[in-house]
Write a structure and sequence with these properties.
The chain has 450 residues and is an alpha/beta fold. The chain has 3 domains: 161 residues, Rossmann fold (3-Layer(aba) Sandwich); 173 residues, Arc Repressor Mutant, subunit A (Orthogonal Bundle), CATH 1.10.10; 89 residues, Trna Endonuclease, Chain: A, domain 1. It is 47% helix and 17% strand. The protein contains 20 helices and 12 strands. A 5-stranded parallel beta sheet has the order 2-3-4-1-5. The two termini are 26 Å apart. The relative contact order is 0.08.
């Protein structure tokens, strides 16, 4: 079952329909579904698909030659081109006769073994872009593609007609994977694994959320048991320090000084590691909405799989290894509600962005963020110019949200002095009659349940 990616498929389709030579760079984090998107797109088209492997240039050239021969002659030939330049030039010439796609997946594996590959592609693009109808797609994991292919120092810089960065599914897209789950169960699974398609595939909506967590995170032979560690090993040199930093943040250390103290490293050292984690999309840094002061910067684990794993799995690793899944889940369960509060806030932000992009949000904000200060915290703030703003609170509780929550949000908003304000209240469950009546009286409130 293929879910989502309509916008990306539409973009690729328009490029393909343009007929002339085109060059697309497709990047994204590991497990985000780049290969699935490529296969979906080229499925009904004339295409040569080749995936690089972590091997020497000779092995990759033989595999590439085989892919070309299978397309050109329909046979699995043992012959090999004398060089990658010869193989690529043959494909560019095929593109002079017909509209053809060459999709090179895991491009970094090739480029790391052949330093001249980018220059060779540059040479052939410059030579054939006026005559060939080839659609060249280079696909690989971030941040390598951004640093080595899209960087201005790369030979391929400026030659890409499209640069597509594939992002994880949002909550709506992830929910489509689980038609049997309730809305609450969908949110809890999303909070545990995030929006990576390959992670979502590991979950089963024929079982409860508890059973899913036990069978995946709390199972020493499961895919998830060491997945975050394995990903870090592929991306960084000292995964142990990175793991300690992520665990500190997931455990509630948001300030640089707090992170440094828990990890036992100097703040300058932590700052360097945090910069890498931000680049990998695992951690994010934020200041109170509308402010940009380093004194108030705080860090959060933005990747839900990493957040869940480092908060609940890492510290219970010994028990999990001994098969004590039930005992570990009993430890996790009381903290799950607090954990889901921040997940719910992210789901609500996604909802507001969809309203904004659809033109149905009463405040035409350009950004959303969280605000905190001496007078409390507001989970979601969005500003339209200098005179209008949106304020939202998100409550992940079993009980209906009462009018006191709306009154509190209204009072906090007064310190900003906006002339026009719209309030959103999001509830996991529902709202009391008093809250509904107050919202109707105020006339600038929208109530949304999960």
């Amino acid at each position: 079952m293929f879910i989502g990616r309509e916008r990306e498929l539409e973009t690729l389709g328009k490029i393909y329909d343009s007929e002339g030579f085109s060059f697309v760079v497709l990047s994204g984090r590991r497990r985000v579904g780049k290969t699935a998107l490529l296969n979906r797109f080229i499925g009904d088209k004339n295409a040569i698909y080749f995936m690089g492997v972590e091997s020497n240039p000779k092995q990759n050239l033989e595999n590439f030659s085989r892919s070309i021969m299978e397309y050109a002659s329909g046979i699995d030939a043992d012959t090999s081109f004398p060089s990658f330049q010869a193989a690529l030039e043959y494909v560019f010439r095929l593109g002079e006769k017909e509209r053809l796609i060459l999709a090179i997946d895991e491009y970094p594996y090739l480029a790391k073994g052949m330093k001249s590959l980018a220059s060779t592609l540059q040479l052939l693009i410059d030579k054939y872009q006026g005559s060939s109808r080839l659609m060249l797609i280079l696909c690989g994991a971030s941040p390598y593609m951004e640093e080595q292919v899209l960087d201005y120092q790369s030979p391929l810089y400026g030659r890409g007609g499209a640069q597509m960065k594939l992002l994880p599914f949002d909550f709506d897209e992830a929910s489509q994977c689980f038609p049997r789950f309730s809305e609450e169960e969908k949110a809890m699974v999303y909070g545990a694994v995030g929006g990576m398609p390959q992670y979502l595939l590991q979950m089963n909506d024929r079982m409860s959320v508890e059973e899913n967590i036990k069978n995946t995170f709390l199972n020493p032979i499961s895919f998830f048991y060491e997945e975050p560690l394995n990903l870090l090993k592929q991306e960084v040199r000292e995964p142990a320090v990175y793991t300690a930093i992520i665990a500190a943040i997931a455990g509630g250390a948001g300030k640089m000084a707090e992170i440094s103290e828990r990890v036992g490293e100097d703040t300058n050292v932590c700052a360097t590691y945090l910069k890498t984690l931000i680049g990998l999309g695992i951690v994010q840094k934020e200041a109170p909405y509308g402010e940009n002061t380093t004194r108030k910067f705080t860090y959060t684990v933005s990747d839900f799989l990493f957040r869940f794993w480092h908060r609940f799995v890492l510290e219970n690793n010994s028990l999990i290894a001994r098969g004590a899944a039930d005992l570990v889940y009993q430890r996790i369960q009381p903290e799950f509600k607090e954990y889901m509060q921040e997940v719910f806030e992210e789901i609500c932000r996604q909802y507001l962005w969809k309203k904004r992009l659809a033109g149905t949000c009463p405040i035409e904000f350009d950004s959303l963020g969280r605000w905190w200060g001496q007078k409390g915290e507001i989970p979601i703030v969005g500003q339209q110019g200098k005179k209008a703003a949106l304020f939202a609170d998100c409550i992940w509780e079993e009980e209906p949200v009462d009018a006191d929550v709306l009154k509190s949000l209204q009072n906090k908003s007064k310190q900003f002095g906006y002339q026009r304000i719209h309030f959103y209240l999001f509830s996991k469950s529902d709202f009391t009659d008093e809250c509904v009546e107050l919202a109707e009286e105020m006339e600038n409130v929208t109530l949304i349940s999960l």
